[in-house]
Design a protein that fits this description.
The complex is a heterodimer. Helices cover 77% and strands 1% of the residues of chain A. Chain A is an all-alpha fold. In chain A, strand 1 and strand 2 form a beta hairpin. In chain A, helix 10 packs antiparallel against helix 11. The longest helix of chain A is centred in the N-terminal third of the chain and has 35 residues. Chain B is built from twelve helices and no strands. In chain B, helix 2 crosses helix 11, helix 6 crosses helix 8 and helix 10 packs antiparallel against helix 11. Classes of the chains: A mainly alpha, B mainly alpha. The interface between A and B is large, with 108 and 107 residues.
């Protein structure tokens, strides 16, 4: 190319390059067009189909989807108490999981952010994150083994004379969820704790604030957005999960109803309508989190 | 600052959480060598025979082949589209530029089942046959953001003066890309690709809804976990998957280096205080479930 340029005759390649340099908009369109097309057609398109399907209905007689807009699915959701129970159960477990994760993540986050030496800090950060990359199913499988009848946990409790029966219960689901999402809760809390200026803590203690007082009046208000940010993950992930309840529990969650409606019943419109429930709940949750300035802590 | 009691509580709590995080993984690894099909603890006798059985299992092989094919194609698509989007956002100012990050993050910001059911209803609606390609489309859609994040973070750290110097010295656009920009972002591109590969290889939530009768390794684990008879083989596959998965993660971490990879968070903001790509990417990964 350099030779061609010296001889004064631009190769077609060079001319194309120069042309694109002069026509930046065209260049942008050529670069951005591909990912944008993919996302608009495949992803936003799919979401639009999902939204529309929620208002279609399945003809019980023919088993075919009738593409007339109607609210019959939403009506069914509201009228049938089963779905309300399932939604409440899911939100209940999601809340319990979130609170447990915050309680568990906090001491380690505090240790890593404020007590550990820099080298140790990096090691511990990696230590928290690596389990995330151990396959999600493998981590559920681990808990299936541990919680099963005659499994590790039962044996452990047996040593102290307690007879434990939690295989295939909501407690098993709760423990497994807590395990799965713990690193996601940990990271924002750690980030928030790391940003608490040491001088604030010194000032507080100079002014006579004891440990608990300093924590409650100084640390907690500063890290609150980080805690809320951490809770978004555990809450949202629990809300949409259908794998864990299937594998370690025996009751149905929102995700199970969506998945089963689509699969066993073949009722995609109803699955789509029920999918609007976690979307609605998460939207409310995110709006509240946004009001609490949690996004700045992410 | 902290009282002695507080320190003891914090250290005790930290120790407990670390045990909580690693004990289950250790137990799965130990169970892979369990001789009996029943999963009683403590294990009475050990064996490696299930490793051979898993290797000889035709369904495992078929699943592995599908998983690798899907991961390769999904990574390729993510690599091209993710890098292109990162370049566009970094180099140009245009209407809706901020919306691009938001759009790309959406598949992982919404719960996995939403992405899955949306793709599933579309596939059904247009009567597209389920195949390896429907899985690839699903995976590529949420893998794009991983590459995008990595490349964009590196582009932002690379001084624009280098590009300007190259142009001043007479290089054309292509030469500048070939000799200046690409070498600067190469490792970030590879790191993004490795993470995308790992993400795709692991995925089950969306895969279940886009794969029809095709089997992938996670689908194999999911379907056979509930059948006690097949658990020893599932267990072996599980352990091998965990070990194999650590390789791309380790490489990605090495390549991207410290201080890299500030993945735009789910809300579209920057993740701060994250030490490395894998940490940030792990947050990104949240969306796959």
């Amino acid at each position: 190319m350099a030779v061609a340029a010296e001889s004064g005759r631009a190769s077609p390649f060079e001319r194309a390059s120069a042309f694109l340099f002069r026509h930046a908009r065209l260049k942008l369109a050529l670069i951005l067009g591909w990912p944008l097309t993919w996302f608009v057609f495949i992803y936003l398109g799919a979401l639009a189909v999902l939204l529309f399907s929620a208002f279609w209905r399945l003809d019980a007689f023919t088993g075919l989807v009738v593409k007339n807009l109607s609210t019959s699915n939403l009506q069914r959701l509201l009228d049938d108490p089963v779905y309300r129970t399932i939604a409440l159960r899911t939100v209940g477990i999601a809340t319990a999981v979130t609170l447990t994760d915050i309680v568990l993540a906090f001491p380690l986050a505090y240790y890593v952010a404020r007590l550990a030496k820099p080298r140790m800090r990096n090691v511990l950060l990696m230590a928290v994150v690596i389990p995330l990359w151990a396959n999600y199913l493998v981590r559920i499988f681990a808990w299936k083994l541990i919680l099963s009848q005659g499994g590790f946990l039962g044996w452990l409790f047996g040593l102290v004379g307690v007879d434990l029966h939690i295989a295939n219960t909501n407690i098993a689901v709760w423990i497994t969820f807590v395990y799965l999402w713990l690193p996601f809760t940990f990271l924002p809390i750690y980030g928030a704790l790391e940003r608490v200026p040491s001088s604030y803590l010194e000032a507080s203690s100079d002014l006579g604030g004891r440990g608990w007082m300093t924590f409650r009046r100084v640390v907690l208000p500063i890290i609150a957005p980080g805690v809320v940010a951490g809770s978004i993950f555990s809450f949202s992930l629990t809300l949409g999960d259908y794998i864990t309840p299937t594998l370690v529990g025996n009751t149905r969650f929102i995700g199970n109803v969506i998945y089963d409606s689509q699969g066993i019943a073949g009722d995609i419109p109803f699955a789509a309508a029920f999918a609007l429930v976690p979307i609605a709940i998460m939207t409310m949750y995110l709006v509240i989190a946004w009001r609490l300035k949690a996004f700045e802590a992410l | 600052m902290e009282s002695r009691l507080a320190r003891v509580l914090i250290k005790g709590g930290s120790g407990f959480v670390l045990v909580f995080l690693y004990l289950p993984i250790a137990i799965v690894v130990i169970y892979a060598f369990n001789n009996s099909v029943g999963q009683k603890w403590p294990i009475e006798s050990f064996t490696v025979k299930y490793f051979k059985q898993a290797w000889d299992n035709s369904l495992v092989r078929e699943s592995l082949g599908t998983s690798l094919t899907v991961a390769l194609f999904a990574t390729a698509v993510a690599l091209l589209l993710g890098s292109a989007a990162a370049f566009a956002v970094h180099r140009f100012r245009f209407f809706g530029r901020n919306a691009i990050s938001f759009l790309l993050v959406l598949p992982i910001a919404l719960p996995g089942i939403i992405t899955g059911i949306a793709l599933n209803s579309t596939i059904n609606n247009f009567k597209i046959p389920f195949s390896v390609w429907t899985i690839v489309i699903g995976h590529a859609t949420f893998c794009i953001v991983v590459v995008y994040n990595n490349v964009l973070a590196r582009l932002r750290r690379t001084p624009t003066s280098l590009v300007e110097a190259s142009m001043d010295l007479g290089a054309d656009g292509w030469q500048t890309f070939r000799y200046v920009t690409f070498p600067a972002i190469r490792t970030a591109v590879v790191a993004g690709a490795l993470l995308a590969f790992a993400l795709s290889f692991d995925e089950i939530v969306v895969t279940n809804l886009t794969s029809g009768n095709e089997n992938t390794i996670p689908k194999f684990i999911y379907n056979n976990m509930r059948q006690p008879r097949n658990r020893p083989i599932v267990n072996v596959v599980a352990v091998v998957v965990v070990l194999v998965m650590l390789v791309p993660i380790y490489l990605a971490q090495r390549l991207a280096g410290g201080g890299e990879g500030l993945a735009p968070a789910r809300a579209g903001g920057e993740v701060e205080g994250m030490e490395n790509t894998v940490t940030a990417a792990a947050v990104t990964q949240a969306g796959q479930y």
